[in-house]
Structure formats: structure tokens, C-alpha cells
Amino acid sequence: MSLTVRAGNGRLLIPRATYDQHLAAAATAALLVREGRVLLVPLTGPMAGGLLLKQRNLAGDRVLLAPDLLVRCGHGDGDPARDYRVHWSPDEGALWIEGLIVTD
Q: How many CB atoms sit inside 10 A of residue 93's CB?
């Protein structure tokens, strides 16, 4: 099974399957850019900071607000949402969002 996230309208939607497999202990996350690639880093603990992984629906999908970063990746407000495959990168302790690339 391929895990995904969906980017659009300033939000990153994280389906429950992706959240459960890689982010379940995290209430917040950070989005980092490394060599143009976007990484989603789970953060844990009350002092971790980061962006809130809000529960979006009863199915357990999560949403993370990141309008500035998504615009830098070519996702304007009116653009259609797009799905991206994700892969766990053990060296970085983060999810690599394949194909979501900072263009500036």
C-alpha cells in the first residue's frame, strides 16, 4: 500500500493510514526544506513546538496548515489539490514528500 498526503488550499492533508504509520505519537510537526525537498518531521512532547496536526474528521485524517510553504511549491490558493506519495527517511527521522519541491 502506497502512503500519501494531499496538498492544496494552503493545507497538507494527512490520511489516517499515513498518520498512524509514521506520525501517531506526534501532536505537532515541522516542515523542513532540504535541497529543495520537503520533509514532514513529527514532533513530540509539550515543548516541541511546530505546526499543529489537527484532526480533520471522524476518520482520523489530520490537517496541517502551511500556506506559505505550499505557495513556494507551486500550490496557489485556486490550484486543485494534488496527492503526493510519502516515504519514511530513517536518516532524517522524517517523511519525505516525493515530488513536493520548493521552486523558489
A: 10
Of 104, 100, 20, nearest in space to 66 by CA: 100
pTM of the model: 0.90
Residue 11 to residue 70: CA distance in whole angstroms: 8
Alpha-carbon 48 to chain mean position: 17
Interatomic CA distance for residues 104 and 58, integer angstroms: 36
Grid coordinates 498518520 are at which residue?
A: 19
- Are 72 and 61 in contact by the 8 Å Cβ rule? The answer is no
What are the pLDDT digits (tens) for 70-98? 999 988 877 899 999 999 999 999 999 99
